[in-house]
Amino acid sequence: MIVEKLKLKNFRNYEEQEIEFDKRINIIYGNNAQGKTNILEAIYLFSLGKSNRTSKDVEMIKFGEEKGELSIDFFSKERNLSGQIFLEKGKRKKIFLNDIPVKKNSELAGTLNVVFFGPEYLSLIKEGPKKRRKNLDVMICQLSPLYLSAVSEFKKLNEQKSFLLKDERPDKTLLEVLNEKILSLSIYISKMRYEYIKKIEKIAKEIQLEISAGEEILSMSYISNRIRIDEKNVDNLSVLSEKRMVELNGREMKMRECIFGPHRDDIEFFINGNELKSFGSQGQQKTAVLVQKIAEIELFFEETGEYPVLLLDDIMSELDTKRQEFVINKIKKGQIFITSTDSEKFESLKAGKFLKIEKGRLLECTSI
Ligand SMILES: Nc1ncnc2c1ncn2[C@@H]1O[C@H](COP(=O)(O)OP(=O)(O)O)[C@@H](O)[C@H]1O
Ligand SMILES: [Mg+2]
User: Fold this and answer.
1) Which sign does the torsion angle of CA 88, 92, 97, 100 carry?
2) Which residue's CA is minimally distant from atom 18 of ligand 1?
3) How far is the CA of 282 from the centre of ligand 1 (A)?
4) What parts of the chain have a pLDDT lower than 50?
């Protein structure tokens, strides 16, 4: 997948800007707070119709303006495609793909696949499960529009259930109906996540062995409703989930919150059998995230036959020389966007486009 052109109008700190990109490597450089990450956010928006930074679309409209507009030309699945997003205060954003309105984000999923990697991801293993679930979902949603629909449906039903549970005497029949629907969606979501994790694990294991000179065996586990899912019990997921839901019913009524469901699930990472979150050094945790991200790129290729667009946001400055070199050597394929305050670091790449950003404008553009 290749992003050829981006046009921004009253988006973030850009008033009006058109940018053409290199097919391979794009180094977006400039001082802090000039608008480098905003470009990556603009590209990211076209993957699932949502920002990676905010859930409030209005925040992306340039301060003081009522409307914002983005358009993109890209190449995907052997076709030239174009997309447009219209942002307007007080209104829902409008998305178009080849001039056809996109009614649901699931219609967009899979057209432009991106892997985003910024400094905030380096704490993926250390922090709470929310970030890990989000990263997982963003990946699977791009690979499966059906999964995206299931996740949105689950969210809607879970909100309804949560509302109902706050009632002093919740309507039992309605609760049962909701629970039944939630159960079948939960089983589907957990199964999809488990299968995805197994695929990622297979690729990540190889990469981890490579980066650790054969010392470290990486493994991953999916925990669904506090049950560790593995090849022995995965076929039994439906029965296990239903049992768990019944067990949790009483507690949900008492606590008045939704406890059962994939919104509480987690992923665990292990190195040589030791859980990384509790036993790994910070360096090991960072490396595992790096490995994870590279594995995501490879998995996209395996599943779709195309490399996703890789968005590396200010990541090099967070890594030591060894890890920087590893990343550079590993990303030899596909289109890449790298933001950095320092462009010199990338001159060794010997090919690509250098784009200098200042105060929401493309100041200079050189190809080497
Ligand atoms: N809605 C907005 N309208 C105008 N400027 C914005 C808006 N949102 C963010 N900005 C500005 O964008 C700049 C940050 O852009 P960013 O791309 O994150 O910078 P960096 O170059 O450090 O990656 C800041 O100056 C911020 O004030
Ligand atoms: Mg930035």
Assistant:
1) negative
2) 37
3) 30
4) none
Domain 122-304 belongs in CATH node 1.20.1050.90: yes
- Give the Å distance between the CA of 34 and the centre of ligand 1: 6
pLDDT of residue 348: 77
Q: Where in the chain is the domain with CATH 1.20.1050.90?
A: 122-304
CA of 60 to the centre of ligand 2 (A): 15
Q: What is the pLDDT of residue 354?
A: 95
| Distance from the first to the final alpha carbon of the chain | 21
Which atom of ligand 1 lies at the shortest distance from residue 59's CA?
Answer: 1
The helix/strand/coil state of 286 is: helix
pLDDT for the residue 347: 78
Ligand 1 contact, 253 CB (< 6 A): no
Cα dihedral: 358, 359, 360, 364 (round 10): -20
Ligand 1 pocket, residue 58 CB under 6 Å: no
**1-113+306-368: what CATH class?**
alpha beta
pLDDT value of position 63:
98
For 162-219, the pLDDT digits (tens) are 999 999 899 999 999 999 999 999 999 999 999 999 999 999 999 999 999 999 999 9
Distance CA 191, CA 142 (A): 16
Is 34 touching ligand 1 by the criterion CB < 6 Å?
yes
- C-beta 286 within 6 A of ligand 1: no
The CATH 3.40.50.300 portion of the chain extends over: 1-113+306-368
Pairing of strands 266-271, 25-29: unpaired
Residue found under tokens 């239903």? 242
Q: What is the pLDDT of residue 176?
A: 95
Cα(12) to centroid(ligand 1), Å: 6
